[in-house]
Specification:
This is Aldehyde dehydrogenase domain-containing protein. The protein has 215 residues and is α/β, with parallel strands linked by helices. The protein is 41% helix and 13% strand. It has two domains: 94 residues, Aldehyde Dehydrogenase, Chain A, domain 1; 108 residues, 3-Layer(aba) Sandwich (Aldehyde Dehydrogenase, Chain A, domain 2). It has a two-stranded parallel sheet. The protein has a two-stranded parallel ribbon with strand order 3-4. Helix 3 packs across helix 4 and helix 5 crosses helix 6.
């Protein structure tokens, strides 16, 4: 996230103010430290930590900031647009995520398609805005794809992110973790089948929804 925001702005000759999410402030500070070591002049990359209602709102409404880009929730995206419009009409670029679909048809290579489907949702713990969180599989290879995904999920190692044998660290934030669990329970209430997962300590899970052939 830091790289994709900062690199184009630097290439265009801009200075930046970065406000990372309050739950994950340290990586941005470390990148700023590395930028200083690399010779980026003081004042070119600026990191401001804080909450959205204060630091984020100040950035969105600041009269001397000429452009805002925001990645996050739709609710906050609306607030950013309103603040930008009410101040100096600065242009806004929003990346607010969604439920990106992945379509797999009968003529697909099963191994390749299952790799794409798995990486499309488990990369960075699924924490990116174009995660393929809905997978539609044609009936002819449906069972094969589901079996492949379950196999991959069961082999995925969750634990200490500094351990080279671990594929995934813990989910960021207790609130987000509980939200994901609530979605799983909601899916089960609607008739979905939990195909892998043995309680809260075990990740990842694959859910099968029989009505729409979604895995």
């Amino acid at each position: 996230m830091f790289f994709t925001k900062v690199a184009p702005a630097l290439a265009a000759g801009c200075t930046l103010v970065i406000k990372p999410a309050e739950l994950t402030p340290l990586s941005a500070l470390f990148y700023a430290h590395l930028a200083k070591l690399a010779g980026i002049p003081d004042g070119v990359i600026n990191v401001v930590n804080g909450f959205g209602d204060t630091a984020g709102a100040a950035i969105s409404s600041h009269m001397d900031i000429d452009k805002v880009t925001f990645t996050g929730s739709t609710e906050v995206g609306r607030k950013v647009m309103m603040a930008a419009a009410a101040s100096n009409l600065k242009p806004v670029t929003l990346e607010l995520g969604g439920k990106s679909p992945l379509l797999i048809f009968d003529d697909a290579d099963v191994d390749q398609a299952s790799d794409i489907a798995f990486n499309g949702i488990f990369t960075n713990k699924g924490e990116f805005c174009i995660a393929s969180s809905r997978v539609y599989v044609q009936q002819g290879i449906y069972d094969k794809i589901v079996n492949k995904l379950v196999e991959k999920a069961n082999a995925w190692v969750v634990g200490d992110p500094f351990d080279p044998q671990v594929n995934q660290g813990p989910q960021t934030g207790k609130k987000q973790f509980e939200k994901i669990l609530s979605y799983i329970e909601h899916g089960k209430r609607e008739g979905a089948t939990l195909l892998t997962g043995r309680g809260q300590a075990y990740w990842p899970r694959v859910i099968l929804h029989p009505t729409y052939d979604i895995c």
